[in-house]
């Protein structure tokens, strides 16, 4: 295989780059090749090349609700954070996949558009929000996302409607069609700027009061089990403060695992497995991970 830095001299590409420099957990081994495309054409070039070379392809946004294993990632990894343009047209906000979801909510607020307040503190990218149907405080991406532009594995670019995105709980059709989200358009409602700002400030204050924002973490680790709350189950199982290596069940919010001392991805996975086993034993409830765990062991 050719050297990707030689193949694509106009694109920032790094070889054997430690992903712990980019993940919110501060963990993760090296990416064989890590590329930072600046626009749709560069994404298409890289995806086409990876397909032709049968090179495994991984796409990351802000790497916030993600654990990259200590062995790193095989093949080509794209980080889309250089594609961060946001535009407003009437009641619609369109954001490129690498734009921060938080910045998108600020653009909506600044144009007195309501509907995205729930996402004011979600640290992921817009592409990640579409991929995972990100949600918080009773809001979900599916309620405001009108459409998304997606690069499909066969090289075609298609605009998918809300219905075609097939949103579910922490799910979208992107997880099955293996497309790359390029941008998303949110259809919002005119509102009062001060009320929108007050709601966002309130939710951010609640988040800061309850969540361990001062430590590296991967966000909410587990999906909400039907009829329960994951954090309460973990708390009631006496697991707050449980530590493996440098990873710990947060003492502030039991639904979070934080990196307290140079923790590794393996430490995170060990804590997750212990929490799952303990909650299953004590309450008979199977906790499914919301966080994505990817890469080589």
UniProtKB/TrEMBL annotation:
<keyword id="KW-0131">Cell cycle</keyword>
<feature type="active site" description="Proton donor">
    <location>
        <position position="220"/>
    </location>
</feature>
<keyword id="KW-0521">NADP</keyword>
<keyword id="KW-0963">Cytoplasm</keyword>
<dbReference type="InterPro" id="IPR016166">
    <property type="entry name" value="FAD-bd_PCMH"/>
</dbReference>
<dbReference type="InterPro" id="IPR016167">
    <property type="entry name" value="FAD-bd_PCMH_sub1"/>
</dbReference>
<dbReference type="InterPro" id="IPR006094">
    <property type="entry name" value="Oxid_FAD_bind_N"/>
</dbReference>
<comment type="pathway">
    <text>Cell wall biogenesis; peptidoglycan biosynthesis.</text>
</comment>
<keyword id="KW-0133">Cell shape</keyword>
<feature type="domain" description="FAD-binding PCMH-type">
    <location>
        <begin position="26"/>
        <end position="191"/>
    </location>
</feature>
<dbReference type="InterPro" id="IPR016169">
    <property type="entry name" value="FAD-bd_PCMH_sub2"/>
</dbReference>
<keyword id="KW-0961">Cell wall biogenesis/degradation</keyword>
<comment type="similarity">
    <text>Belongs to the MurB family.</text>
</comment>
<dbReference type="InterPro" id="IPR003170">
    <property type="entry name" value="MurB"/>
</dbReference>
<keyword id="KW-0132">Cell division</keyword>
<dbReference type="InterPro" id="IPR011601">
    <property type="entry name" value="MurB_C"/>
</dbReference>
<keyword id="KW-0274">FAD</keyword>
<comment type="function">
    <text>Cell wall formation.</text>
</comment>
<keyword id="KW-0560">Oxidoreductase</keyword>
<protein>
    <recommendedName>
        <fullName>UDP-N-acetylenolpyruvoylglucosamine reductase</fullName>
        <ecNumber>1.3.1.98</ecNumber>
    </recommendedName>
</protein>
<keyword id="KW-0573">Peptidoglycan synthesis</keyword>
<dbReference type="GO" id="GO:0008762">
    <property type="term" value="F:UDP-N-acetylmuramate dehydrogenase activity"/>
</dbReference>
<feature type="active site">
    <location>
        <position position="290"/>
    </location>
</feature>
<dbReference type="Pfam" id="PF01565">
    <property type="entry name" value="FAD_binding_4"/>
</dbReference>
<dbReference type="InterPro" id="IPR036318">
    <property type="entry name" value="FAD-bd_PCMH-like_sf"/>
</dbReference>
<feature type="active site">
    <location>
        <position position="170"/>
    </location>
</feature>
<dbReference type="InterPro" id="IPR036635">
    <property type="entry name" value="MurB_C_sf"/>
</dbReference>
<dbReference type="Pfam" id="PF02873">
    <property type="entry name" value="MurB_C"/>
</dbReference>
<keyword id="KW-0285">Flavoprotein</keyword>
């Amino acid at each position: 295989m050719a050297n990707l830095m030689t193949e694509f001299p106009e694109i920032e590409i790094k070889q054997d780059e430690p992903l712990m420099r980019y993940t919110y957990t501060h963990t993760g081994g090296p990416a064989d090749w890590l590329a930072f495309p600046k626009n749709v054409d560069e994404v298409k070039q890289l995806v086409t090349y990876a397909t032709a070379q049968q090179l495994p392809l991984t796409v990351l946004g802000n790497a916030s609700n993600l654990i990259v294993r200590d062995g790193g990632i095989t093949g080509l990894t794209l980080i889309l954070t250089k594609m961060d343009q946001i535009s407003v047209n009437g009641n619609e906000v369109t954001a490129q996949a690498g734009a921060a979801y938080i910045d998108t909510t600020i653009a909506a607020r600044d144009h007195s558009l309501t509907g995205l307040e729930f996402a004011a503190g979600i640290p992921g990218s817009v592409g990640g929000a579409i991929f995972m149907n990100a949600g918080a405080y009773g809001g979900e991406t599916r309620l405001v996302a009108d459409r998304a532009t997606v690069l499909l594995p066969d090289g075609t670019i298609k605009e998918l409607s809300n219905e075609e995105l097939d949103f579910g709980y922490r799910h979208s059709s992107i997880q099955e069609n293996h497309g790359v989200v390029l941008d998303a358009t949110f259809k919002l409602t005119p509102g009062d700027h001060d009320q929108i700002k007050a709601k966002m400030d309130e939710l951010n204050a609640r988040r800061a009061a309850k969540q361990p924002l001062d430590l590296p973490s991967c966000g909410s680790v587990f999906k909400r089990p039907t009829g329960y709350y994951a954090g309460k189950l973990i708390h009631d199982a006496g697991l707050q403060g449980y530590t493996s290596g440098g990873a710990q069940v947060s003492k502030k919010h039991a639904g979070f695992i934080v990196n307290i001392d140079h923790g590794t991805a393996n430490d995170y996975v060990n804590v997750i497995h212990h929490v799952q086993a303990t909650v299953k034993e004590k309450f008979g409830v199977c906790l499914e991970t919301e966080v994505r765990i990817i890469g080589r062991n």
